[in-house]
Amino acid sequence: MDDDNLLDSHPDLMDPEWRKHAQTDAWLGAKKDRKQFRKQQMRSARRPRRRWWIFAVFVLILGVTTAAIVYVGRRPAPVAGPPNPTQVAQFAHVDLARPYDGTPAQNWPKGLDGITSPAAAPVGAFKAEAVADAYAKTRQAITAAHLDPAVLFAHDPKAFLALFAPDQREQLAPRLAAKPAKDQAGFDSYLTEIADGYHLLDAGPRTFGTLTARPGEKPGELAVDAKYVISYAFDNVHPETLTSPNEIVSFLRVDETYVVAAGSRVAKSSQGLWLDGGQSATSSVGCAAFREGFLAPGYANPPAGPSAGDQDAPGYYDPKYPVPTIDDCH
Predict the structure, then answer these.
(1) CA dist 169 to 16, 176, 276, Å?
(2) Per residue of the chain (330 residues), what is the pLDDT tens digit?
(3) Phi/psi at 252 (nearest 5 deg)?
(4) Measured CA distances, 239 to 92, 93, 96, 99, 152 (Å)
(5) Pairing of strands 221-233, 272-283
(6) DSSP one-letter code for 297
(7) Within the chain, how many helices (H) and strands (E) appear?
(8) How far is the C-alpha of 281 from the C-alpha of 16, rounded, in Å?
(9) Helix (H, G, I), strand (E, B) or coil at 6
(10) Can you say whether residue 308 is alpha, beta or left, with left for phi > 0 and alpha for psi between -120 and 50 degrees?
(11) DSSP letter (8 states) at residue 203
(12) Cα–chain-centroid distance for residue 300?
């Protein structure tokens, strides 16, 4: 008898109950296999979707990061802060086309426009028109003393003298005509005269200050207190050697009082404009020229030149502070 017949005739296989259980187990096993097969198919179907979701998130993050980098790259550079109003940068790039950069004068108006006054109004017995006239005369005097090319370069004081009352001219003329003497100028100088051999840049002098009218000490006198700073930018043939704007920018700080005398109680020869005293100080100037009554730039000093003045004192650059009592060259 062959093996197949022996297997078919096995007693267990001939038992109907056993056959029933065997068929049931076979059906359940096949069902379990089918479920597992479907799960595997479902996993296989889901895996690509998960990869696509991860890829989409990656693309989104990459896009946001790129946009942020582009925005930062295109964002305007931070705006430089305003210049220090009370100090000149000790070490800074010097550009002759913009000589006042890095100095308190960086944003000051060119010429006399930086010296302002309130709207003219009555002061004591003087009407608004008289106050406006006093402001105008004071501006003319400041211009003639410190901004007029005839005084700056030709050292000619005639236009300045012509602005004053006859009696005042008589007092001033001998002083202005006298040859400057060593150590007799500086604070007491009435005019700004550029030392020979030096030239100002086209940026021109700049000013910052105020005029304030008040009653004078005597009847018929209207006083104008002038508090101001004037900056001068000098040319230099070797700008690449400069290390700070204080080598080419000089400052003149002045507090002074002008008086307009008028009325029947004032002698005719004394009627008009008077200079009634004042004080001044300089910063970043050539000391040798200064001692002889002339203005020269700071680079005129020897490399180890004197620097006795307190150059951080705010009064050098801001007229709301007192005029410094220590000067660059003293």
Answers:
(1) 149, 10, 13
(2) 444 454 455 555 556 664 555 555 554 454 455 556 455 555 554 444 455 555 555 556 655 555 544 444 444 433 334 455 556 767 788 899 999 998 999 999 999 999 999 999 999 999 999 999 999 999 999 999 999 999 999 999 999 999 999 999 999 999 888 766 555 544 347 899 999 999 999 999 999 999 999 999 999 999 999 999 999 999 999 999 888 898 999 999 999 999 999 998 999 999 999 999 899 999 999 999 998 889 999 999 987 544 444 456 788 999 999 998 876 676
(3) -120, 120
(4) 12, 10, 7, 10, 23
(5) unpaired
(6) B
(7) 7, 5
(8) 129
(9) helix
(10) alpha
(11) T
(12) 26
Element (H, E) at 280: strand 272-283
pTM (2 d.p.): 0.72
Q: Phi and psi for 179 in degrees, rounded to 5?
A: -70, 130
Two structure tokens written together for 101: 């950069």
Strands 249-261 and 206-215: unpaired
Scanning the structure block, which residue is given the tokens 């001219």? Answer: 169
Report residue 322 as tokens: 């007192």
Sign of the alpha-carbon dihedral angle for 204, 205, 206, 207: negative
Six token digits for residue 315: 């009064």
What is the rounded CA–CA span in Å between residue 13 and residue 95? Answer: 111
Three-state DSSP at 172 gives helix
Helix, strand or coil for residue 278?
A: strand
Residue 194 identity? I
Looking at the DSSP assignment, which residues form a beta bridge with residue 295?
194
